Amino acid sequence: MKFQSVIKVLGSLTLILPTVFAKSQDYARHLELSLLFYEAQRSGPLPASNRIYWRKDSMTDAGADNHVDLNGGYYDAGDNVKFNFPQANTITLLAFSAYKWKDGYKQADQWEYIKDAIKWGTDYFIKCHTGKNELYGQVGNGSLDHGAWVAPEDMTYAHPSYKIDSKKPGSDLAGETAASLAAAYLVFKDDDPTYAATCLKHAKELYEFADKYQDTYTTGIPDAQGYYRSYSGFKDELVWGAAMLLLATGDESYRAKADAIWDYPYNKNDPDYFLNSGGPISWDDKKACSYALMYMITGEDKYKEQAFNHSDLMVNYKTTPGGLWFDTNLSAWGSNRYASNAAYTVAMVASTMDASDAKRKQYVKFIKKQIDYIQGDNPAKVDYVVGADPSSPKSVHHRGSSGTMNAMAEPSFNVFPLYGALAGGPDGNDKYTDDRNNYNSNEVALDYNAAYTGLLAFLIQEGLNVPDPKQTWQGAWPPKESTNGQIKLKLNFNGLNEFAPTVSTTGGLTCGGWCVEMDLTSSGATLDNVWGGELLKQEGNKFVACAGWGKGYLDGKGTEQNFYFRIKPNGSMKEPTEGFVYCNGYNRGDKYLVKVNGGGSEPYGWTKGICKPAHICDANGNYIKDSGVINKSTSGGSSPKTKTTTIKKTTTKAAEPTSPSSSCFATKLGYGCCTGCEVNYTDDDGAWGIENGNWCGIPDSCNKEPEPEPEPVKDECFATKLGYDCCSGCDVNYTDDDGAWGIENGNWCGIKDSCSSTPSTKCFSEPDYPCCPSGTATVYTDESGAWGVINNDWCGISA
């Protein structure tokens, strides 16, 4: 009996523990979730492999206002703006972690996903680099966007694009973007060397731009001032970018660039003073990661001193009572973010140390404590990663995830799971409230997850991962379809000219937004008016009405929501027997064909599976791990090696000399000399060829140094002094203070001086606007003449 009692007690504890204490050391599972968060933040046309069922294409005309393609990249946080400065730092930290802690990603089966996450960002940055000294740094207006609470798919307000150039430069933005592309080169150089080379080319050009034209980027993009102003200046990005390029290329000139700032005798109160940083890295401040990286590359004492002093400071910094790294000023907004940032540079330094080093063990213990706190080992007993545990936040500050039309609307919990998002975190006393309106503690953002993601890979690589049991609680990844969910639509016709439709859901099918599509064509009536809801679109007698301001969500419990429409009868009236309902809105929702008055509903135009979306699971509901990889043909790393056959020379039978008159080593060995110089095999005797099926020695004459060819006379142009070639033609693609630039073979080249020696063709637009280069397309015509566009400015087309 006593034994049975103990078993009962233990059994009850097993049932209770998951809801009482949420702590997890399954870093691999959390790593998978963290990368899902980045998928949820994607902008532009989404791939067919998209795993986030509530995300669809959005902002597909990014850059159209300036006639450039700026599709792709990531939305910054819970808003719908692409702020490139923090986005670039996010990609840099992710890419460096993939380079340095690659084994951690591979052990977690997330290597292809981290590469996808990085490439989604770098593809966008390459698009943003529209001129040699021109870089777009933001898409979307902060004020316009933050005044609206809509999902990115439902945006109707303007989203202008902003750039920096040689006249209004931004060394911080260009320097960080260069760092991200250089770090991406390190990730892709083995798996995709062609793409890696492209990243490196843009990284070098952007760093040159950042270094040559120095200023803070908000000079050219003032809208970013209120959101991501660079408080630390731009010197830290110049060092950070140079350090990453030094790592990528080994070119010592980048070390000289970094040292010029490192060694400069700034006053300690000068904001450009680079040494002895007292805080963690951030989207703004790159000093500490520069300390660590320069030490990792060189091992030299001056870098080591800064790297270890800063790491010791972070490890011994004050914490909350529960152990989270905490700075009174910084951590008031996104405390989990800053704790992860503080630990990231410590992990960089720890990666340089011997495993038996006592200080290294102290560093790893600190890193692990910060991550374990985030994952539930804290007084609030909350796993701060959305979708990781039943205790995880459910109301993070995020427009698309909320499923509501304003931040304060019901439901208070978010309709859509924002898997993997790292919530802001607790206050200095470990207190936390899961409230959508409290963005200090419940905001999510690209930079919040960046260092955290890398640290997960670090801990996995350290061998510290402890797998959790299979997650079977409702809402765990992967999301499941509602098996019994139904939509009900009642028309409630008054018999004269008004309908008062109600729509509801049952079986746990929750819809954050909803729309009803009706066709009155065969009803013998004409639509007159819609109210109590938003008339989204109308084509003849077909219309779509959606939940308007103040309308509730569909709760899956049968609660009815309503709107009204009036008709003009054309004789006898025949009520419609069916309609379409869009669960979760017209632009991103699932479309159902619904028979009115309780006739049932079924998916329309999409396939219902066990999981949501259906393609992420097999027929038995088992998650397919690579279901979200964008291009599976590139999975698996290096290309297959070609099988080769080695021909071995044999001396069993001497061959007749092929060329008796030639002089070569082979004649002493009973072989002839070759007539040509093609080498098939080399051994200690010398170089061998094969002619007429027999071995022959390569003649001595082949080894003579060829007469040097006279160097071709190089075209004269300004670009050669800047390390670029001159163009073979005269077509201008871009102009800056250096001169006129063209593009040949994918590289910038300078327009030759001889092109300008040709008498310039005068045109009507001078002197106010330049003349267009030959072949420029006409985009506008007025009484003055035909106009084209070059460098995003007007130019006159010669008659």
UniProtKB/TrEMBL annotation:
It comes from the Eukaryota. Belongs to the glycosyl hydrolase 9 (cellulase E) family. Its EC number is 3.2.1.4. It holds the Pfam family CBM_10. Residues 1-22 form the signal peptide. This is Endoglucanase. Transmembrane segments: none annotated. Residues 663-699, 716-752, 762-798 form the CBM10 domain.
